[in-house]
Amino acid sequence: MFAKHGSAPVNGRLRRVNAEPRWLRALLLVVGLGFLFFFLVLPLLAVFVEAFAAGWTAYAGALNDLETRSAIGLTLLVAFFVLPFNVVFGVAAAWAIAKFDFRGKSLLITLIDLPFAVSPVVVGLVFLLIFGAQGLFGPWLAAHDIKVVFALPGIIVVTLFITSPFIARELIPLMQSQGTEEEEAALSLGASAWQMFRRVTLPNIKWGLLYGVILSNARAMGEFGAVSVVSGHIRGETNTLPLHVEILYNEYNAVGAFASASVLALLALVTLLAKTVVEWRMRRENSMLLADLPTEET
């Protein structure tokens, strides 16, 4: 049977794990839950406690501040511009790597992982050297009255660089595991390339794509280092929400800082909830596919 070949070693490991002493399992559970509470739950609770420390009126007043609203709007605007580019790049890169063999494929995979290896601050400095006033394209941009750094385009560019691997990295193993048989069958039946993508490829990768979008969106809204370098920290213009929180905290405006931080925390919780729902749907769909597989005759 197909299931028996794959599940026997797993069941063996599970039996060995279940055979461990009860006190050891309890200790591991306490350590895991304790870590989650002290390093994840407690800091989140502290943010909301400090945000409401002066009361609801002070909290609402801090969020209604003009600069805070501008920071929230800019953060959402950057994510709005970055995500479509990441979707197009991620799907195209994953498709090329998973479906085709070509020279330079390993180099492309390495380049996709590059943003994970480079410090965001270094990324900001690099783009400052390229588009800054004394940078490579600085004089040309100034001559044509085009402003990239210390403006919205610079923030979008560095955020795009930082978040570019998330969708591609999620789709590459998924598309490699699916192979090319279904796309080849669709083409042999007369489907166009767009019809093949829309009716075969996209349904197969939809949950992985949505998962990558969620992760990319979370990083885009929370990016600090690279944005800090190229934004110029102009109040009400180029301060995203993470930068605004830092400024308020340095000015001893605790209520404003934690109120703004609570918005980021809420966005993170919504992202976590969406991520959990997508993971559940992916596991459910995979289980249904495995259940539909024909069993091997013994």
UniProtKB/TrEMBL annotation:
Key word Ubl conjugation present in the record?
no
Primary localization class, coarse: membrane
Localization per Swiss-Prot or TrEMBL? Cell inner membrane
Segments traversing the membrane = 26-59, 71-95, 107-130, 150-168, 254-274
Q: Record's superkingdom?
A: Bacteria
Q: Which GO terms describe its molecular function?
A: ABC-type sulfate transporter activity
- Domain ABC transmembrane type-1, first and last residues per copy: 72-279
Membrane topology summary: Multi-pass membrane protein
Q: Which InterPro entries match?
A: CysW_permease (IPR011866), MetI-like (IPR000515), MetI-like_sf (IPR035906), Sulph_transpt2 (IPR005667)
Summary of the function given for this chain in its UniProt record: Part of the ABC transporter complex CysAWTP (TC 3.A.1.6.1) involved in sulfate/thiosulfate import. Probably responsible for the translocation of the substrate across the membrane.
Q: How does it assemble?
A: The complex is composed of two ATP-binding proteins (CysA), two transmembrane proteins (CysT and CysW) and a solute-binding protein (CysP).
Report what the protein is called. Sulfate transport system permease protein CysW
Gene name per UniProt: cysW
